[in-house]
Amino acid sequence: MNKLLIVGTVAFDAIETPFGKTDKILGGAATYIGLSASFFNLQSAIVSVVGDDFPQEHLDLLTSKNIDISGIEIVKGGKTFFWSGLYHNDLNSRDTLVTELNVLADFQPKVPQNYKDADVVMLGNLHPLVQSSVLDQLEKKPKLVVLDTMNFWMDCALPELLDVIKRVDVITINDEEARQLSGEYSLVKAAAKIQDMGPKYVVIKKGEHGALLFHNREVFFAPALPLEDVFDPTGAGDTFAGGFSGFIAQSENISFGNMKNAIIYGSNLASFCVEKFGTERMETLSKAEVAIRLQQFKSLTQFDIEI
Ligand code: AMP
């Protein structure tokens, strides 16, 4: 079985949307990526850090999804990374209210020995120096390295972020962040500039408006499935990244054509994530439900015009 190595935050989140409010619940980029990638036939491991305030039941949840958590360090007396966000009425934009790095501030990641030859590496959102350090520890060049990041790191660690971006094959970011990183308003120009920074493939996530994949002069677009119920978009981007990297790891095919399928898998899984608060929907989601919605995705985008 192919191996997917996941790096990112394992966290506490407090979320407020027009539909309700949660106290500190399970969150974090690596958590969402891991839950999403668990729908594929592969071995996966998370490298992250938490404090000893982090409940064992959250770690048990990850283990129950066959995710290797030996790379999640638990710092005695430390506090887990905490993020709080407030969504606006359109649910497409949000304000970050609090980001407490806590144990993440001094984190030195350790890649488990049996994942130093991972086939695919998914560098989830966290400090770019941690992302680089994970790449430094690998003993074999992975078939694909995917990086996700956000404006927080562009604001506070841009040179380090530019260094790690040089080393990856695929970057996934949202439209606002692509504009901030490139200084271009047009997403076509932004993607071209970002390709010049290193990644040959640029995925731009546009929330409920779908996702774009750019490679050289080629571009592919996947819509987001129109949903009846959207409660909480938190983690949708990470769930997308988990579906994308999980599918690539399972299929071992890194062609542009297969990446299109990976974008569809990522969008499909993300469509479930937003239906309930936090990780709730992903925890109970079944493979059968994923397959049914994949068919809906196909119908949504298929047409028969002869050209
Ligand atoms: P998303 O909605 O896909 O952008 O991801 C939301 C998740 O990212 C939440 O569960 C947060 O815990 C996590 N998160 C928020 N800010 C950061 C940050 N600066 N670095 C890493 N993870 C973060």
Structural description of this entry:
The protein is α/β, with parallel strands linked by helices and 307 residues long. It has a single domain (3-301), classed as Ribokinase (UDP-N-acetylmuramoyl-L-alanine:D-glutamate ligase), CATH 3.40.1190.20. It is built from 11 helices and 14 strands. The protein has helices at residues 29-37, 56-64, 128-137, 151-156, 158-165, 175-182, 187-196, 236-251, 256-273, 280-284, 287-301; strands at residues 3-7, 11-17, 20-21, 25-27, 43-51, 67-75, 82-87, 94-100, 120-123, 144-148, 170-174, 201-205, 211-215, 218-222. The strands form 2 sheets. A 9-stranded mixed beta sheet has the order 6-5-1-9-10-11-12-13-14, with helices on both faces. Strands 2, 3, 4, 7 and 8 form a 5-stranded mixed beta sheet that branches. The longest helix has 18 residues, at 256-273. Adenosine monophosphate (AMP) is lined by residues 9, 11, 13, 27-29, 83, 99, 125-126, 150, 152, 234-238.
